[in-house]
Amino acid sequence: MPLSHPDPASIETLLAFLRFPSISTDPAHKADTAACADWVAARLRGMGLVTTIHPTPGHPIVTARTLYHPGRRTVLIYGHYDVQPADPLELWHHAPFEPHIENGIVTARGATDNKGQILAHILGVEKTLREKGNLPVNLIFLIEGEEEIGSPNLPAFLREHHESLVCDVVAISDTGMIGRGIPTLTYGLRGISCIEITVTGPDKDLHSGIYGGAVANPITELSRLIATLHHPDGRIAIDGFYDDVKPLEDWERGAWSRLPMKDDLLLELTGSPRTFGEPGYSGIERTWARPTAELNGITGGYQGDGSKTVLPSRASAKFSFRLVPGQNPEKIHRLVEDHLRKHCPPTVTLKIDIGHSGAPYAVDPHAGFGKAAQEALRKTFDGAEPALIREGGSIPIVTDGFREILGVDTLLLGLALPDSRCHSPNENFPLENFAAGMALNRHLLEEIAAA
Amino acid sequence: MPLSHPDPASIETLLAFLRFPSISTDPAHKADTAACADWVAARLRGMGLVTTIHPTPGHPIVTARTLYHPGRRTVLIYGHYDVQPADPLELWHHAPFEPHIENGIVTARGATDNKGQILAHILGVEKTLREKGNLPVNLIFLIEGEEEIGSPNLPAFLREHHESLVCDVVAISDTGMIGRGIPTLTYGLRGISCIEITVTGPDKDLHSGIYGGAVANPITELSRLIATLHHPDGRIAIDGFYDDVKPLEDWERGAWSRLPMKDDLLLELTGSPRTFGEPGYSGIERTWARPTAELNGITGGYQGDGSKTVLPSRASAKFSFRLVPGQNPEKIHRLVEDHLRKHCPPTVTLKIDIGHSGAPYAVDPHAGFGKAAQEALRKTFDGAEPALIREGGSIPIVTDGFREILGVDTLLLGLALPDSRCHSPNENFPLENFAAGMALNRHLLEEIAAA
Prior knowledge:
The structure is a homodimer.
Chain A: H1 8-18, H2 30-46, E1 50-54, E2 61-65, E3 74-80, E4 100-102, E5 105-107, H3 111-132, E6 138-144, H4 154-160, E7 169-172, E8 184-189, E9 191-200, E10 206-207, H5 208-211, H6 218-227, H7 250-257, H8 263-270, H9 283-289, E11 294-301, E12 310-311, E13 314-323, H10 329-343, E14 349-358, E15 361-362, H11 370-380, E16 387-391, H12 396-406, E17 410-412, E18 428-430, H13 431-450
Parallel strand pairs in A: 3-6, 3-7, 7-17, 8-16
Antiparallel strand pairs in A: 1-2, 2-6, 4-5, 5-18, 8-15, 9-13, 9-14, 10-12, 11-13
């Protein structure tokens, strides 16, 4: 596949962007994050876009727009300039904020998620403007600095500015390709509901010799509660949990079964001894189109070296439920809470803390601007037929922000590869995908204009 | 009950003993612990006993003995001069190593466990020697500095010195009284088997959105394994676990049912919402005479604030099984391991680490020197009838050391009260129990001599 290499100036620009340690969750990097926002805004302003840095209670949001042309469609391209923390640092082969290029791949924190991908769109627009003087659409860039901490200030910003953010469609490059050179349109995402529970028995830690056997052990009771969440075969055992799930359509199962993503690849990518999950579904069906009840953390009692014979006062666990189209996060919170209260014995007390949530997303990839997106992908990737997929992760702003507040669908045109290591040490982005992103931007705007 | 107050000199001696921060687990207190051993040895030597400080790979063992008189019985009194760590320091009302006396109670780390109790024996012997010139028995003090870390060097010491430690019986004051003024003879202890298990799924932490639902979650699988350990009613569900358990005797159930230790006291002491345990047994029967499968700690995944949607690579848990007479720790380890391997699904791998263990202990309180001990308690506590109990905790050296190596039984004549807070902040010891311990020493040696 003859994907091109980006020009040296674009590579230098990418490296400059990657050098900002714009870690949004870390207060120590607040100034770095602000400096990164300034850098993005300066770049956009230099291209002739009307650019604004909007302060928020957290990190700033940068917007930039072309002058409005009546009669042209309006496209909003969303991305983020903040990155995940880089730790554990000792697992990086090179310093995470000193980008390193080897074999056509740039390694740095944020290379794929999301600096490489959003910059490809910025430079794609810059190139079109330089060569043609204008774009075939009205364009709005919306680039925030809090995506990695759940976009706490973005919904309020969208509500406040929705009149100036009116658009026909949103485009995001922050998802994945199913393999190198395989253009990929993501038309569905899972939603999420987070819950933390704490089980308390005695009101203080006890000596397990003196009292063990006569009062309930909170770790045991928490474990028994967790064990009630699933049937032995992997199905979730919460009453009503699957009631609203929209079944997979036949065309999806057919198309997905032809993708080069079999369960042996899943084993290779995860290092698990076996696959496991809801019976009757393949690995990608389970992760893309079926809901989960996942444990993210558990803690209780003594956790140091050796043994300490304590009967702990309490134990707690963090859950996240991934939801699929049809399911409602608030209803799931209710069902889960009912289930836990029903199964918790009276020998311990149960505290439930409801965490953040986000609705699932799905759009028909054959309707609306889906065909334009597929054509743009085809042209970018040398005529290759785009894979139509969903993804298991969640981008709540797509439903809760762009669909609910702005009233539009989102095209998810990801450029990450399965081994791009987003959120992990040695995050990387192939320069050919960076170049592809610039080309994709031009084709996408042209196809949307012509649709 | 007219228990006497100790003389001022004895109280001063106790306070001096309590000022040593002889924390055996903390390398920073190695010199303090050695200084405490020196202090104990100097005291014993000053009483005219043949005293030796024996270095070990850890903290020293102090022995002291009267000159041998043929024809007299030999009693070995065991105790320890090391203490538990004092943290959490902020929960102490006074500094843990600056002993504080209020309302006839001394508060300090080690006040009850074991400095107050072993010193009462030392000062009791000193008083008898001062008043009478000699003792009615041959006496050996064996006072170690590693009891709180599992006495790692004591068994080897007993094996090496068993010829010079030949005795007729061991006496220990390191257990509890069931209530103020109620003399108590403990004739049974539970044993212990410790195990840690680790369940591993993927070979690295995964994004729960990307992979959740298609591979097993180690926290879920660990919880399901833990849930298999008990039947819902509280009985342990491990095949063969109860096979060797010696049933409670009728006289024990009868005697215990008349003790002032009902389940409402258990709720008050533990702060648990309800009692819970093996059906058909009272709270004290469950803790004194029935085995347990207790969780001491669990850990896995993200444990910080808020949520992190990780599907963790592994989760682990620490168990301790309290064992009762008839049960063998090695056999229990085998049964537990078989159970866990049988119930662990092939979607994760299971690692089992066998920890330390100790055999249970029981002796007939009506045979051997049991009657002498009861008579000594009666005389000490103004004629009150001693309670005959077992305890739920473990003192492995009683079985693995004194019974197996020296071939003798142990009299457990504890002076701790239920609210003495051993191992907890604000550990304390009533001065009346300190005085009682001195009197008990004299009566005990006399009764053993006469038995």
